[in-house]
């Protein structure tokens, strides 16, 4: 059933369009997403998305920002629920598991976060930059906890390696090469091998 733009309260159409886009992403890759189809899904005129986003790229940037915020929330939740008795290595495994779980549950959102055409490497949007920084800080803090005596330069390199390993496992999961259940023991083997 079609809705008119008047059905939305002032300020609620933009998030409704974003939600419609996320709904479409479940079955349509973000590279095939069209503003016209988003408008149809939201039940508004085909011009409505242009008033809020200008173009498709601006909408994809917004979707990537919302998705990265969700990923950050998943990491913060894993951090907050960590058992104080848990070792630093087990904590890093829990963070990695949360990262992979987000990718497994929302592969379409995960893909739009890291599409270099959407979030240009080295030139993120003003909204995306602090989200990326926050994810990096969480991973760096957890990496430092397992390697407290390394130099700052080594810590940066180690954090990049940790992020790369976790991200690589997430990519393997969403591509269907491994299952989320297989990812966790891989994280344990990498970061907490004494538990094996």
Tell me about this structure:
With 196 residues, the protein is mostly helical. The protein has two domains: 1-54, Arc Repressor Mutant, subunit A; 60-195, Tetracycline Repressor, domain 2. 67% of the residues lie in helices and 0% in strands. It contains nine helices and no strands. It has helices spanning 13-25, 35-42, 48-53, 56-80, 88-105, 107-114, 128-146, 152-174, 180-191. Helix 1 packs across helix 2 (35-42) and helix 5 (88-105) runs antiparallel to helix 9 (180-191). The chain starts with 12 loop residues before the first helix and ends in a 5-residue tail after the last helix. Mean pLDDT is 90; it is low at 1-6. Keywords: DNA-binding, Transcription, Transcription regulation.
Largest sheet: none
Return the CATH class of the largest domain: Mainly Alpha
Could you spell the SSE succession in H and E letters? Answer: HHHHHHHHH
* Number of DSSP E strands: 0
Distance between the termini: 55 Å
Low-confidence stretches: 1-6
Mean pLDDT: 90
CATH homolog superfamily of the largest domain: Tetracycline Repressor, domain 2
Using only CA atoms, what is the Rg? 19 Å
Structurally, how many domains make up the residues? 2
Question: Which architecture name of the largest domain does CATH use?
Answer: Orthogonal Bundle
Give the overall shape, derived from the CA principal axes. elongated
Strand content: under 5%
CATH topology descriptor of the largest domain:
Tetracycline Repressor, domain 2
The computed structural class is: mainly alpha
Helices, by number, come to 9
**Residue share in helices?**
55-70%
């Amino acid at each position: 059933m079609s809705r008119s733009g008047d059905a939305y309260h002032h300020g609620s159409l933009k998030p409704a369009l974003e939600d419609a886009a996320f709904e479409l992403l479940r079955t349509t890759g973000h590279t095939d997403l069209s503003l016209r189809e988003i408008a149809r899904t939201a039940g508004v005129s085909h011009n409505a998305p242009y008033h809020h986003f200008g173009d498709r790229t601006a909408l994809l940037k917004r979707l990537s920002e919302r998705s990265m915020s969700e990923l950050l929330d998943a990491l913060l939740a894993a951090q907050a629920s960590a058992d104080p008795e848990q070792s630093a290595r087990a904590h890093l495994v829990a963070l990695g598991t949360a990262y992979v779980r987000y990718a497994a549950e929302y592969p379409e959102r995960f893909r739009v976060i890291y599409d270099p055409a959407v979030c240009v490497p080295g030139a993120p949007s003003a909204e995306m930059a602090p989200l990326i920084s926050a994810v990096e800080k969480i991973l760096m803090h957890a990496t430092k906890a397992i390697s407290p005596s390394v130099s700052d330069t080594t810590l940066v390199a180690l954090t990049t390696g940790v992020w790369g390993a976790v991200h690589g496992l997430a990519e393997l999961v969403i591509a269907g090469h491994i299952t989320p259940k297989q990812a966790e023991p891989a994280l344990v083997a990498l970061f907490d091998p004494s538990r094996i």
